[in-house]
Write a structure and sequence with these properties.
The complex is a heterodimer of chains A (298) and B (303). Chain A is mostly helical and 298 residues long. Chain A is built from 14 helices and 2 strands. Chain B is 69% helix and 0% strand. Chain B has 14 helices and no strands. Chain B starts with 15 loop residues before the first helix and ends in a 6-residue tail after the last helix. The N terminus of chain B is likely disordered. Classes of the chains: A mainly alpha (298), B mainly alpha (303).
């Protein structure tokens, strides 16, 4: 036993350079990521409010109560809905734009890449400021433009029927930038010989795109789906700026509910439990997507 | 390759001039689609900037004014003279973002190099744990971190506040991953040669690894700056008062609180605030576009 230990000790001493190099980063990772994660998981079993020392253990009852909570149910369903709406549209739109931009040469690529990434750089909060105006039912730009084609004014942010879609629309304006950058890089890396061979074989552009380009892009597409899904699962600042989750929770999300529950209502235990549910949801979905990725990687 | 993607079909037997004509039409068609889409996506930014120069009556006019006919500086003057410290917000944003970048880049360079170039017992397990948290939603950890910051009274002082605002971003699994990918391409021969010449581990890192990893570190720095700038929720939670707001928090404050106690929102002022907030990041992006692209693609696309 002692021999083994000294063996291990000697092994560690021999590799001390490696350990020392990773030490600062790993320490930060443990202190600011792993410990807070564990603390949140622990806190999720407590009823805890502003005076954190007076927390009471409630165990799994917290989760049982959470799943009976109508507001939580709404936030859970909405979050999944946001993912199911925003991710496919983002994917389709960014893929289409990339396929159109790619053959257009380096300068056009860098121009359009910049143009579509720009809104995302400004950030969701800043963009929401202008959308508050654009969505205004009486003097907003959107209703004016829709009026030109004969559509009646819509109460975008104030109606339970449209608030979800209004938020989705704004989110979409800053999600397509990152996939376009990835797709253009992916397209530039494709084997040109294979694509040329298709032209020689008489494949038209549709066939070539559908049967050759897209399958070759598959790893990038799956990466985009994974990162976008994770991103949209965390949607909240647009909601904070535009609707505060309303009206009657029609546009709320899990992260917005975490914000409200923890930092407005001060119910840290319950908010941690919502966070844990979100974490598990994201982990399951990401794991599923990674499995898909592994299976398709050549 | 002057072909259009997915717009026209081109059977081989077509005469050459007709093919050329079709391909030109396809190219024109794709430019039209792209330009229309680009206008749609950039319109909100245009609307915000021009809106910042419109008088209150014009911002509420129907039909709206697409090109400001009587531009005014009134909104901008209000933005900089209102009961809030706009320039201070900018200073706060710059300090917090720079602080985050410096710490993240140093940490990621060392740790990424360690994982990329060193083999030691446990290195794979440790890296796997790090990697598996890379994409976890960070809001969960904000609750304990918030309680920690509050418990330590970090936000009582200005430097403490800046440190607190940078805290949750300091563990940067993505940055470490990105640098590791890059570091593992450093040739072993180079390191061995330096060792034979008597260089210490630290000298090898500073004189050989860091210059080679330079592009990755630069991309990480630019990318992290943008992320830190827009880390809205945390800044909102930690900022003790109006003087500690960052630009996005300040802009949200102007947009959501009716200015000067007015009941109606002051749209011109909102747009000036929004433009002020967008300006620095947009200039930053235009100046460093290549690094943004690298920061996004290094980790994802092979080759």
């Amino acid at each position: 036993m002692t021999a083994k230990l000294t063996g291990l000790g000697r092994e560690i001493w021999r590799n001390r350079a490696g350990y020392l190099f990773i030490a600062p980063g790993y320490l930060a990772f443990v202190v600011f990521m792993l410990i807070p994660l564990a603390a949140a998981a622990g806190l999720s079993f407590y009823k805890a409010s502003f005076v954190i020392d007076q927390r009471q253990f409630v165990g799994l009852e917290q989760y049982a109560r959470l799943f009976r909570d109508a507001k939580f149910q709404k936030a859970l369903v909405n979050t999944i809905k946001y993912v199911l709406v925003v991710v496919p549209v983002t994917l389709g739109l960014s893929l289409m734009i990339s396929l159109l931009v790619h053959p257009r040469g380096i300068r056009a690529q860098s121009f359009y890449r910049g143009a579509f990434y720009l809104p995302g750089v400004a950030g969701g909060v800043i963009l929401s400021v202008v959308w508050l105006w654009i969505f205004n039912p009486t003097f907003g730009l959107l209703n004016y433009l829709l009026g030109l084609v004969g559509i009646e004014p819509v109460l975008w942010l104030a109606s339970t029927k449209t608030s979800f879609w209004a938020v989705s629309m704004v989110v979409l304006t800053f999600t397509i930038g990152q996939p376009i950058i990835l797709f253009l890089a992916g397209l530039a890396n494709l084997n040109q010989d294979i694509l040329d061979a298709c032209v020689v074989d008489g494949a038209n552009n549709w066939q070539r795109t559908w049967f050759v380009t897209l399958p070759l892009l598959r790893p990038v597409i799956l990466f985009v789906i994974a990162t976008q899904t994770i991103g949209v699962f965390q949607i909240w600042e647009t909601i904070y700026m535009l609707t505060e989750g309303g009206p009657s929770n029609s546009s709320t999300s899990l992260v917005f509910l975490i914000y409200q529950t923890a930092f407005i209502a001060g119910r840290y235990g319950k908010a941690s439990a919502i966070g844990v549910v979100l974490l598990i949801l994201v982990a399951i979905v990401t794991f599923g997507q990674l499995r898909l990725w592994d299976r398709t990687e050549v | 390759m002057e072909t259009t993607a997915a717009t026209v079909s081109r059977p081989r037997e077509r005469p050459h001039h007709q093919k050329l004509w079709l391909s030109r039409l396809g190219r024109l068609f794709s430019y039209v689609i792209l330009t229309v889409l680009a206008i749609v996506f950039l319109l909100p930014l245009y609307w915000m900037v021009t809106g910042s120069s419109k008088l209150q009556t014009i911002t509420m006019a129907v039909p709206p004014e697409f090109f400001p006919s009587q531009p005014t500086l009134a909104n901008w003057i209000k933005l900089f003279t209102g009961p809030w410290p706009s320039w201070r917000w900018l200073l706060n944003s710059i300090i917090v973002s720079m602080l985050t970048v410096v710490i993240v880049v140093i940490i990621a360079a060392m740790t990424g190099y360690g994982f990329g170039k060193k083999r030691f017992p446990g290195s794979e397990v440790l890296f796997f744990i790090l990697l598996s948290t890379m994409f976890l939603p960070s809001q969960v950890m904000l609750i304990p971190l918030f309680l920690l910051v509050r418990g330590l009274h970090l936000t009582d002082s200005v430097p403490g506040s800046y440190l607190a605002m940078a805290l949750p971003m300091l563990s940067s699994p993505y940055g470490i991953f990105l640098v590791k990918q890059f570091a593992s391409t450093i040739p072993d021969d180079l390191i061995d040669a330096a060792k034979i010449d008597g260089a210490s581990e630290w000298q090898i890192f500073m004189r050989i690894a860091v210059p080679i990893m330079g592009p990755a570190l630069a991309a990480l720095a630019i990318f992290t700056f943008n992320l830190a700038w827009n880390y809205f929720m945390w800044h909102l939670l930690v900022a003790a008062d109006k003087f500690m707001y960052t630009v996005p928090v300040g802009v949200s404050y102007i947009a959501r609180v009716p200015a000067y106690g007015k009941v109606t929102q002051d749209i011109g002022l909102m747009m000036a605030g929004g433009s002020f907030g967008a300006f620095f990041m947009i200039v930053f992006f235009l100046a460093f576009q290549q690094y943004f692209v690298k920061g996004i693609t290094f980790g994802a696309v092979k080759g």
